[in-house]
Design a protein that fits this description.
Layout: E1 5-9, H1 13-24, E2 28-32, H2 36-45, E3 61-64, E4 75-78, H3 85-93, E5 101-104, H4 117-124, E6 130-134, H5 139-143, E7 148-153, H6 157-167, E8 172-177, H7 180-202, H8 207-228, H9 238-249, H10 254-263
Parallel strand pairs: 1-2, 1-4, 2-3, 4-5, 5-6, 7-8
Antiparallel strand pairs: 6-7
Helix pairs in contact: 3-4, 7-8, 7-9, 7-10
Amino acid sequence: MKSKNISILGGGSWGTVLANLASSNQHNVILWMRDSRVVEEVNNSKRNLKYLPELKLKGNINATTDISVIKNSEMVVFCVPSDSFREVSEKASEYINESVQLVTATKGVEKNKFNLMSQVLNEYMNNNPIGILSGPNLAQEIAAEQLSGTVIASKDKSLQKNVIDIFGSDFFRVYENDDPYGVEMGGAIKNIYAIACGIADGLNSGENTVGMIMTRGLGEMSRLAVELGANPQTFLGLSGVGDLITTCASPLSRNHKFGKYIGEGLSA
């Protein structure tokens, strides 16, 4: 596969890992972020000390605070927090033409409108092909090259193939899926149950409690999927039950950690 120009919007742990996966496959990567200090670190020392200090970045990654440099990208991956997703999408849309493939790697919904991230992208770039990247993907483990899998969901087959080729490796497997709505919904909703499991952990509840929350949560997610038009079978895959288990059970999960602190009596 010839080298492609890829832009990753968001320089947190997940965005940094995705940039490293793409650049390791010989693609040219723009890593956009707001923090100029982290930009300098990435460009000078090939490390993001703020989020993943142990990861030595490979290949051709150019970090920047100037979002206009994404204008020559063939694919743009949105990896910013959900509460700033709309702002970044609107800003990025000025530099993205209709042939560019868009991927959202952000899990969540808008606080006020309950829009999924792909729906936000559609508002600003409704003619672009869009894909959802979601799965049990703890960035620290992928950075350490531990075996992991994810799902790329889209109605566009060429986008699916490109994501597989750009980010796949011998330790990171990318699977295609044709139910983007179900995949994205699963990635967002499971956070609720992860917080609940964290609260149970903070209250020193047993494994039975966590198992009950996860199982009942999966059933609830599937019923909601049917009501909203997604395929309930999607929730039996990596982006459903796989992501649910990882996020609910791992101390590396931010949602689990947040819930645990609440269970221990700290304020939100």
